Each structure stands twice: as structure tokens, then as C-alpha cells.
Amino acid sequence: MLLAASNGKELWFLTRGTGVVALLLLTGGIVSGVAGSTRWSREHWPRFLVTGLHRNLTLLSILFVAVHVVTAVLDGFAPIGLLDAVVPFRSPYRPVWLGLGAVAFDLLLALVVTSLLRARIGFKGWRVVHWFAYISWPIALMHTLGTGSDARSSWLQLLSIGCTGAVGAAVLWRVWAARDGAAWVRAGAGLAAFTVPLALLVWANSGPLSRGWAARAGTPARLLRTGVVTTGSKTPQTTTAEPPLPTGVFSTPLRGRIVDNAQSDGLVVITIDATAHGVFTGRVHVALRGVPIAGGGVNMVDNVVGLLPAGSGSWYSGSVVGLQGQRILTQVKTGNGATRRFLLDLQIDPNAGTVSGTIHGVAGRG
Questions:
Q1: Top-confidence residue, 170 or 267
Q2: CA torsion sign, 196 to 197 to 198 to 199?
Q3: Which pLDDT belongs to residue 242?
Q4: What SS3 class is residue 316?
Q5: Could you tell me the pLDDT band of residue 202, with boundaries at 50, 70 and 90?
Q6: I want to staple 297 with a disulfide (CB 3.0 to 4.6 A). Which of 52, 65, 152, 293 is the partner?
Q7: How many C-beta neighbours within 10 Å does residue 24 have?
Q8: For the chain, what are the domain ranges?
Q9: Rounded-to-integer distance, Cα 272 and Cα 129, Å
Q10: Least confident of 98-102, 141-145, 220-224, 355-359
Q11: Distances from the Cα of 244 to the Cαs of 207, 309, 339, in angstroms?
Q12: Are strands 236-238 and 228-230 parallel, antiparallel or unpaired?
């Protein structure tokens, strides 16, 4: 069976999901940490379980953040590198809001490292660093809303309100339990439990929840297509027309993966999935089905081609009209009944399963 072009958003969904789960785990880590610091326990829930829960939730949050970062980098939609995850405010993509995510990640790493070195740095030093957990949480929430693609979704808004309420209640619980602590510290913590959620609400209403946030947040101009309004980093909502395919002669580098799958009928399907950045920025998908040739290659029986421009909600489909070695000539429908031709000049490494090369715009129409 011929492979059809996928929607190309698997990594995007994984990035979104792991980010939200990381926020939930961080929230749970703070609440369980407060429970442990107040020596809370029950008959069927002793203190060591509270401590273990806190530790495991924190470690899991870091794991999900790591997956969140890696999938965002591999997705290739936005110019995000691995270094952007630990060095704040250097990314060209929404630098402030992506940078806040790096700050929150660095604070979490500091918590883990100091916990492992607690015997050497002493209790006071460990405790000072541990207070940063309270700071990392609102920073992580601002990153989620400022950079994420679901800020205007009701489910994420309700989840954010629930997490904010849980952390605020935990802080007030901690203040109440520390009745013998310094009065100014308790007063400041109690005040923060009210003012921080209020400040987040005011900021969210004037920022991520308002129209035009994508441009104001620092999304590169090449990702903001005419006729498309983006509510976040990766969820385009078409209001007039899909981003057009580039016209005329051009050359854009691309890089991706190639998979060779044998079928029960003796045929083989060669699938190429690549990402291009340049005059054409987006995804390129080619699937060739045919009779395998000794030494590599395929005598093509049928095929499918898809181009997904950055910011588009749907693929432009087409077919292969010429195949010579590692050069593939494609013809793609533009959406208004016309067609355009694109030449893929590829370099394939079958051992590594990688493909690189160039997509060329061919003058004229098909």
C-alpha cells in the first residue's frame, strides 16, 4: 500500500504534550515539597512517601522538559537549538519567552545538583537554592503561555488556573505552618501568593490571550505568513488563504530521513521526509512505491508528493513526474488549479538513513 503524506505534526504534538506534563509535574513537585517541609503525614501515607513523591516528581519534570526540548529542536519548525535550552534569551525565536523556559530549566537543574551535593554544601546552602523552586514555577508558566501554541485554548487556561490555585494554596499552607518563622518572611510569602497569580492574569490577558501575540512575542517574520493568524508557535489558524508555494527559480537546502520498507507483495516503499529552510521553509514528503532494483533503487509503480509550508495547516499534494538517480522532479498543485514543478537534488546515505540536498524551484508551471 502506498504511503500517504502524514500531517507532519507528530513532533509538534509531542512537544506540546511533554511541555504541559512537565508543568503539571513541577506543580506536583512544589505541592509535595511543601507537604514534606511541613512534616505532613497520615497513617497510610508516612513522611518518607511524601519525600519520595517530591523527589520523583521533580526528576520526572526534568525528564519531560528534556524530551520537550529535544522534540522542539528536531521538529525544525522554529529556529531553536539545544543550546537555547540552557542559555537564556539567545534564540531568534521568541527570545524572551523561550529564554524564560531556559531559566526555569536551569533552576531545576540547580535543585537536582544541590540535592545530590547536599552533604557537601550543607543544609543552609541547599535550602537557599531550594527556595528557587518557588521562582521557577511562575517562570515556567509564563514560558508555557508565552511560547506555547495553546494559550488561547480553554483546556490549557483551566489547567493553568488549577495549577496556579494549587501552588498558591501550598504557599499559604507553608506560611500558616511556619508560625514561628520571621514575620517579614511570612508576610512577603503570603503577599506573593496573592499578587503573583494576579500579575500573571493581567499579563496573560494583555499578552498571550490577545490577538497579534505571535508577532509581538518575537516570532521571526518568515514564519508569519500573509493571510494566516497564529495563536502560538505552531498552530496556524487559516483566516483567508494558506501560505502560497514560492514561485520562480530558487534553491533551498533540505535535510531529513529516508526509510525503505519492503511489502508483502514484493514491492518496496521508499519514503523521504525532510525539512527545508530558505526561500521555501517547510516540510517535504515523497513516497515512491515500486519494484526493487538490484544494487538499490526502485522501478516506480506509483508515488505521492507533499509540500507543507511553515505556517500552513494542510499539505500541497502532487506527484513525481521524473526520476533519475537521486534527482526527483515533482509537480505540485498550488490550490487554485495550477501546478508548479520542484526538483529535488538529493544526496542519500542509505546506511545512516539520512538525506540532504536541495529543493529547486523550476521556472514556469507544470
A1: 170
A2: positive
A3: 60
A4: strand
A5: very high
A6: 293
A7: 18
A8: 10-215, 250-365
A9: 48
A10: 220-224
A11: 29, 8, 12
A12: antiparallel
Angle at 146 between CA 53 and CA 104, to 5 degrees: 40
* CA distances from residue 109 to 59, 71, 162 in whole angstroms, order as listed: 9, 19, 25
| Residue that is written with C-alpha cell 508569519 in the block | 224
Query: Exposure pattern of 29-57 as b/e (b: 16+ CB <10 Å)?
Result: bbbbbbbbbeeeeeeeeeeeebeebbbeb
- Could you tell me the three cell numbers for 205? 490577558
Model pLDDT, residue 365: 55
DSSP state of 7: -
Q: Kindly state the percentage of the chain with pLDDT values over 90.
A: 35
CA 16 to chain centre: 5
Asked if residues 273 and 283 have their Cβ atoms less than 8 Å apart, the reply is: yes
**Phi (first) and psi of residue 347, to 5 degrees:** -120, 115
Strand partners, 42: 45
Secondary structure of 158-184 in HEC code, one letter for each residue? HHHHHHHHHHHHHHHHHHHHCCCCCHH
Query: Residue 230 contacts by C-beta under 8 Å, 6 or more apart in sequence?
Result: 214, 219, 223, 224, 236, 237, 311
- CA separation, residue 11 to residues 4, 69, 168, 264 (Å): 18, 11, 33, 29
DSSP 31-81: HHHHHHHTT--BTTB-HHHHHHHHHHHHHHHHHHHHHHHHHHHHH-SS---
Of 321, 358, 314, 357, which is closest to residue 339 (Cα–Cα)?
321
Supply 1's cell numbers. 500500500
Q: Are 71 and 206 in contact (CB under 8 A)?
A: no
**φ, ψ for residue 57 (rounded to 5)?**
-65, -40
The rounded distance, in Å, linking the Cα atoms of 176 and 209 is 34
Residue 131, helix vs strand vs coil: coil
For residue 262, which amino acid is it? A
**The pLDDT of residue 366:** 52
Give the residue from 257, 255, 258 showing the smallest Cα distance to 281. 255
